[in-house]
């Protein structure tokens, strides 16, 4: 919803191939499609595969969901084109020669969902009751970021 609100064409669907075709039918000028969780959708053609790993958690216990944090086995890293490591942390044993890029998330202003031009910095939430939810693979990081910005959240 945030990407669509920012003007990016977005299509959501379980069948990534059908979703990609639908996106291109709606927006034939699109030259790049990014697919969240696309690695495990093998029917989806791709020109480049980039795996994103959490720097702190790494490969966790090395097991797949629901017994571990992974959606693909660690051996899948042998077939990707590059890895992006989100945040610093432990050491990651990656295949030799695999390009590795570092990234770090930095909190910024908060934007109203119904009007992205309305913003408030974290200090603006001081003394207010805030509710937050996260639909990401490691939600604790999100809540830690809010706490680090001084935003008291009622989970």
Low-confidence stretches: none
Euclidean distance between termini CA atoms: 22 Å
How are the strands of the biggest sheet laid out side by side? 1-2-3
How much of the polypeptide forms β-strand, as a percent range?
A: 5-15%
Layout of helices and strands, plus pairs?
Elements: H1 2-5, H2 16-26, E1 50-54, E2 82-86, E3 100-103, E4 110-112, E5 115-120, H3 139-148
Parallel strand pairs: 1-2, 2-3
Antiparallel strand pairs: 4-5
Structure explained in plain terms:
This protein folds into three domains: 1-46, no CATH class; 48-104, no CATH class; 110-148, no CATH class. The chain contains three helices and five strands, in the order H-H-E-E-E-E-E-H. It has helices at residues 2-5, 16-26, 139-148; strands spanning 50-54, 82-86, 100-103, 110-112, 115-120. A three-stranded parallel β-sheet has the order 1-2-3, with no helix packed on it. The mean pLDDT is 88.
């Amino acid at each position: 919803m945030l990407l669509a609100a920012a003007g990016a064409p977005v299509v959501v669907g379980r069948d990534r191939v059908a979703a990609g075709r639908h996106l291109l039918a709606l927006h034939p000028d699109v030259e790049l499609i990014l697919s969240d969780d696309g690695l495990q959708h093998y029917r989806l053609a791709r020109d480049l595969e980039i795996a994103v790993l959490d720097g702190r958690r790494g490969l966790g216990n090395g097991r797949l969901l629901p017994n571990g944090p992974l959606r693909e086995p660690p051996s899948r890293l042998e077939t990707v084109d590059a890895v992006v490591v989100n945040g610093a942390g432990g050491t990651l044993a990656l295949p030799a020669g695999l390009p590795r890029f570092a990234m770090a998330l930095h909190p910024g202003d908060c934007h109203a969902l119904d009007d992205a031009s309305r913003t408030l910095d974290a200090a603006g939430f001081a003394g207010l009751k805030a509710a937050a939810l996260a639909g990401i693979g490691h939600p604790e990081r999100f809540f830690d970021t809010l706490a680090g910005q001084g935003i008291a959240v009622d989970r």
